Amino acid sequence: MNTILVSSTWLNNHLNDSDLIVLDASQAKTATGEKSDLENIQIPGARIFNLKKDFSLQSSDLPNMLPEARTFEASCRRLGINKSSKIVVYDNLGVYYSPRVWWMFKTMGYENIAVLDGGLPHWVSNRYKTEPKVCSRFNTGDFTATLNSKHVKTFSFVKQNIKNQDSILIDARSEKRFKGLAPEPREGLASGHIPNAINIPFTTVLDTDCFKTKTALKAVFAAYNIKDKPLVFSCGSGVTACIVLLGSTLVLTQETAVYDGSWTEWAQHKDSEIIC
């Protein structure tokens, strides 16, 4: 499965493949309170990927932080994921949490994963079968995880990059949040952005529930004059950053990474600088 995105038609045709595992990365609601009206159904046989509970660093006071490799590995094994598995991940908002999961697997050294373009809404609109959402147990898999630290950037890296500008920092939050004109959804968090960051709201790379065409994506990044430097993506808590990262991967060739602490860490760090 040598692809980043798969269509609902492709998944429906391959749903019974013996080595295919479908992961449902849906959450109850987003940080901004958005919910899906498809929260009680799933694609047949889907396995629940609990981003908040099983696949985030529980010892951190920051949301959605990447867990340690051994924790990620153990959680994947409990889902019955093997080294030979082909994985398709989706969520019930179209494309929202699924790119984060795709990035996590890539960061843990696993390549055989794709995002369902359009997610559950697109699946339902094509009238493919669904079933009530269920939690199941699986035979333990043999999945292995090896962290590629180049895919993850820290506060220190981002702070240093303000000076040397070796990488381009791209913020996926809305324009109003980026400019400090709208409050952050997390109470008490300052508004604004990291110095020298470029604002590409995650909705810019989407067309309703799906990613834009490659031609349109090329135009998006061309409009922001993205130079041939490594790209580091940020947002509120590292989720929507991965949407823009995935969009860039479809049409650009430079190295990419996520500032995992994102704005939640930056805005409350005593050594940070904020621009509105």
TrEMBL record:
GO terms for molecular function: 3-mercaptopyruvate sulfurtransferase activity; thiosulfate-cyanide sulfurtransferase activity. Pfam families: Rhodanese. This is Thiosulfate/3-mercaptopyruvate sulfurtransferase. Keywords: Repeat, Transferase. It comes from Formosa algae. The keyword RNA-binding does not apply. Its EC number is 2.8.1.1, 2.8.1.2. It comes from the Bacteria. InterPro entries: Rhodanese-like_dom, Rhodanese-like_dom_sf, TST/MPST-like. Residues 16-132, 163-275 form the Rhodanese domain.
